[in-house]
Design goal:
Oligomer: homodimer
Largest interface: A-B, 75 and 75 residues
Shape of chain A: globular
Strand order of the largest sheet of chain A: 3-2-1-4-5-6-7-8
Number of strands of chain A: 8
Number of helices of chain A: 17
Structural class of chain A: alpha/beta
């Protein structure tokens, strides 16, 4: 059976490890310290980030990069978006020539506004860059770990690389589909967290389901507009990597980004909300990057702009929601859906 | 102020009437019998279909078609899809030359598989046909009636007709956007009820949120495939009329189609479920039409096919779900998302 290395032992990395090991793959889960690795191997469970899921015997933790990566058919990065750069720096020298490097992190890098695959490409040797691919989609870690049915996409510029990963990862309860739209998949997975923050705010303010549905629809549309401006296929945003992931956010009570939105709407300060969480949800940084990208690309993102102001400029969530409704209401007296959402007119 | 006639006094017709009358429009709500009209006018409330919403003074019920339609700036049909034909036959002779006829019914006609605007066109004089338009989107009646924020689309072949209706209907808490993709809007509004049945089945069987998100994503994709085969713009399905409406179905506990799916999954017989409901949810008939259209157009609709068999051929919902998962899992070992969902490749 094949071997896979997973860099990152938080919930998603652990869940992927459990899912792959159950399938029969030998998985090495890399941890920062030897103590962490020992603890995981001894307890056969990640009690911190994914409690109650017993490790299959083919899943083994190690703090040695060399040991983790040796002989791996794929190296999966499942670390927070803001630490992808430092992690790829750590492992870059150990990467073998034709082994896919799979980014399973959703977000944009602060300051550079770069996608994860771009960050990885900058930190590895040029001849390794074609090995980069991206895994994204609606994926609550617990469900993937418990063999509940999940489906994700794997994107690579070179479809053969994505197909290699598909061969390694696909199983009856974890479907993977390939695509070459790396930009669309990465932007979809990152920007959906901004929408999740907004859905949370709407939820926390007590808006109805009609309003939430309209918000999500036009939120998806503004994400898509930015994506199109950056070279993505608009229809990628209707696939698993964006729409699918947004729907999970709507359904699932376990979305951390949505939770932050709900708490903001209830009047909690961002600082207090974040200090109570083990990780900072990806949407918090992604909103900054999304807004900067929107400005640079000339994309109109009325929801993202207001979510940014709620997070970083103290805008009252109630006023933000009212402003956004007025923005749309004003247009609703005279505008076509395709003018409101420019890519609707150009696509299809 | 303008006048509007609403044909149909169930929940959606009543809610639209309340919303318009609140805005200042004079609304005549047409009922089948004089007793019904008297009851509504006396109680100032539709206790049967939309209890607890007081009628504004500009909303008035009448059983006279002539009185309802006289001087109306728009005639809105909000009756069950299967009775649109007989209703338009009743009112056809009273329609004035340049007054928009707005279909607010979601569904496809049984036997003919026709969209509501096609049914209407067949029953009115040719010179009136350009007046036909369609209103659709995420619209829980109660929320529209209570001035919670809602947004919908209005579609007409001739954009000027849609804009006329937009002028009459739009208000700060009821946004309307226009489009010329009548086919897309009607198919989206009709077919989303098939997806709602499937979401209900998944819910009732206890599937996780990852699985439901994947189901909805690919359900939307198969609807879109049929729409594209029939001449719609694929991106219309990402707008309010389809995606927005599907999201309401996911969020809201009040979706009747989803409820039917949940009960089917719990082992109840379709007959028993339907006999306990005041109306037959639109998805029950639409599934038959959707399947026939898919076969005629050569569209691949694996979920619709299985939902049909659950409804009409006694297929066990558990087996239907397993079959559908196997269908996708089988493809997930070797397939790109764009091959799985052909319009993903052609659009954008």
């Amino acid at each position: 059976m094949s071997r896979v290395a997973i860099i990152g032992s938080a919930s998603w990395g652990t869940a992927l490890g459990i899912a792959l090991a159950r399938k029969g793959t030998h998985v090495k889960l890399w941890t920062r310290t030897g103590e962490e690795a020992n603890k995981l191997n001894k307890e056969k469970e990640n009690t911190t980030f994914l409690p109650d899921f017993h490790f299959p015997f083919r899943l083994w933790a190690t703090s040695s990069v060399e040991e983790a990566i040796e002989g791996a058919a794929a190296v999966i990065l499942a670390v927070p978006a803001q630490s992808v750069r430092q992690n790829i720096q750590l492992i870059g020298n150990y990467l073998a020539d034709s082994v896919p490097i799979v980014s399973a992190s959703k977000g944009l890098e602060l300051d550079t506004n770069k996608r994860m695959s771009q960050v990885i490409a900058e930190e590895i040797a040029p001849h390794l860059q074609p090995n980069i691919c991206v895994l994204s989609g609606p994926s609550i870690a617990q469900e993937a770990a418990m063999e509940s049915h999940s489906a994700v996409v794997i994107a690579a510029n070179n479809i053969a690389v994505a197909e290699k990963v598909q061969q390694v990862m696909s199983q009856s309860c974890f479907c993977t589909f390939t695509t070459t739209d790396v930009i669309g998949v990465e932007l979809g997975g990152a920007l959906k967290n901004v929408i999740a923050l907004g859905v949370g705010i709407a939820e926390g303010l007590g808006y109805g389901d009609n309003a939430k549905a309209a918000f999500i629809t036009y939120g998806l549309a503004e994400i898509t507009s930015l994506g199109v401006a950056m070279g993505a296929n608009p229809l990628t945003f209707t696939g698993l990597a964006c729409l699918g992931d947004i729907i999970v956010t709507c359904f699932s009570p376990s979305s951390r980004n949505r939770d932050v939105g709900i708490k903001l709407a209830k009047g909690h300060a961002l600082e207090d909300i974040l200090s109570s969480l083990p990780h900072i949800p990806e949407g918090i940084a992604t909103t900054i990057a999304a807004r900067q990208l929107a400005r640079r690309m000339g994309a109109n993102m009325p929801a993202t702009e207001r979510i940014y102001r709620v997070l970083y400029e103290g805008l009252d969530p109630k006023i933000a929601a009212t402003e956004l409704i007025e923005y749309y209401a004003d247009k609703s007296y005279h505008m076509s859906e395709s003018k409101l959402v420019p890519h609707l007119a150009s696509g299809g």
